[in-house]
Amino acid sequence: MSGHVFHPGHHDLHGITVVLETATALWVGRFDSVTPKGVLLHDAGCYEDGVTAGTREEYLQKTLKFGVRATTKNKLIPEGEVRGMRQLAEVAG
Amino acid sequence: MPYPESLVAPMRAEMTQMGATELRTVADVDAAIGSSAGTTLVFVNSVCGCAAGNARPAMKMALGHGVLPDRTVTVFAGQDLDAVARARSYLGEFQPSSPSIALLRDGEVVHFVHRHQIEGRSPQAIAADLTKAFDAHCSNSVGA
């Protein structure tokens, strides 16, 4: 049973926890897919510039230590708003 | 919605066969984690093949190490909902994800492996992370 994948044929990042940046926010969540309406994340947490305490970097460091504080079950982010995306594990170096 | 039991049974068995005690009720969790002195390894199992498919073999490798936690327990995310929620209540600030692995000493989390630290990593790399934590926090030397 080890290594059995129930969802073959998906995007390479499917199931991977990613950091997605927009002009005004930073989302961390489990990548699902790119749909015609945008990038779909599951169990996502969000840092909003000017709203969330601290800096984006501090938010990421806390997320690396304690995990994703998910506030949204499913989040669709229009592709045009995406400034960048990387795996959360890459942030740790 | 939970997966059919017939589908997850082999994943449960994979854990119990390596020596983990499966906790399926709140009472099970409280008895195993709630008042445990010493070290307890908690594995949050998952059907996710992307991550759990590497996490379970990593656990098996790690449990072959010379220094081990006093006890190893497992709960199954998405399946035994109440037991999982109760187990997570013992993990303090650490956010829920599955699969994930927590090492507790005298009820406090001293090491945590999040899902994002499992994704894309080999079982060997995950096991090395765990055995390093065992060496640092556990005193149960197998065969000593």
Report the strand count of chain A: 5
Number of separate structural domains of chain A: 1
Strand count, sense and barrel status of the largest sheet of chain A are: 5 strands, antiparallel
Distance between the termini of chain B: 45 Å
The name of the CATH superfamily of chain B reads: Glutaredoxin
- Integer count of domains of chain B: 1
Key attributes of the depicted protein:
heterodimer; A: 93 residues; alpha+beta; SH3 type barrels; disordered N terminus; B: 144 residues; alpha/beta; five-stranded mixed β-sheet; 7 strands; globular
Describe this structure in words.
The complex is a heterodimer of chains A (93) and B (144). Chain A has 2 helices and 5 strands. By secondary structure, chain A is of the alpha+beta class. Chain A has one domain: SH3 type barrels. The longest helix of chain A is centred in the middle third of the chain and has 11 residues, at 56-66. Chain A starts with 16 loop residues before the first strand and ends with a helix. With 144 residues, chain B is α/β, with parallel strands linked by helices. In chain B, helix 2 packs parallel to helix 4 and helix 3 packs across helix 5 (123-137). Chain B is globular, with a radius of gyration of 14 Å. The model of chain B has no long low-confidence stretch (mean pLDDT 94). Classes of the chains: A alpha+beta (93), B alpha/beta (144).
Compose a concise summary of this entry:
The complex is a heterodimer of chains A (93) and B (144). With 93 residues, chain A is of the alpha+beta class.
